[in-house]
Write a structure and sequence with these properties.
220 residues; mainly alpha; MetI-like fold
Length: 220
């Protein structure tokens, strides 16, 4: 028996709001972790501004480890950590923890790639003018790579939207949880279709906004 979508709409709106909250909070926290890690990877690598092979190798291994674990496995593997941090392993707040563990290292790699695209001549010119390492990072590397970083973070955000849907398998809330509870377990096809459409619309909005901001920043 199919549900009445008009009566079911409040649940859909609530699930959409939960997805937006999960993605936003996880993205902010992941950026706070991933951007500094990405910078550290660039400046500590061979011939970097602060070359330090032990630090680079350690960060490289840690980031590769988390990136190699599929999200659905990571979701279950860090349940004890999730319970320790938020006091529960289900719900929107609990879903944020594995989302951050999943997307933080990914953003670090994306930021690393963006910074490595900066023309070395610009960095060398700043060094010749006597700029300190931190001045080069914040006044040369980051501004020059900002457009690319925005585009890459857009990609990471879309990945978060997909991962937030997978969090529904363990009661993470949001559209994924709604799709699994009603669309899969109860065979409510209408609910499944609506949640998929909403996720597609959300991804399109994020990508369009990211493209627009990246283009604007490239003109500066």
């Amino acid at each position: 028996m199919q549900v009445n979508l008009l009566e079911f709409w409040p649940k859909i709106l609530e699930a959409t709001n939960e997805t937006l909250v999960m993605v936003f909070i996880a993205l902010v926290l992941a950026c706070l972790i991933g951007i500094p890690l990405g910078i550290a990877l660039v400046v500590t690598r061979d011939q970097g501004l602060m070359e330090n092979r032990p630090v680079f190798n350690t960060l490289n291994i840690i980031i590769n480890f988390f990136r190699s674990v599929p999200f659905i496995i990571l979701l279950v593997a860090i349940l004890p950590i999730t319970r320790f941090i938020v006091g529960t392993s289900i719900g929107t707040a609990a879903a944020v923890v594995p989302l951050v563990f999943f997307s933080g290292p990914y953003i670090a790699r994306l930021v690393e790639n963006s910074l490595l695209e900066v023309n070395k001549g610009v960095v060398e010119a700043a060094e010749a003018m006597g700029a300190s390492t931190w001045q080069i990072i914040y006044r040369v590397l980051l501004p020059e790579a900002l457009s690319s970083i925005v585009l890459n973070i857009t990609i990471a955000t879309i990945g978060l939207v997909g991962a937030s849907a997978m969090a529904g398998f363990v009661g993470g809330g949001g559209l994924g949880d709604l799709a699994i509870t009603y669309g899969y377990q109860r065979f409510e096809t209408d609910v499944m279709i609506v949640t998929v459409i909403l996720l597609v619309i959300l991804v399109q909005i994020v990508q369009t906004l990211g493209n627009y901001l990246s283009k604007k920043l490239r003109r500066l």
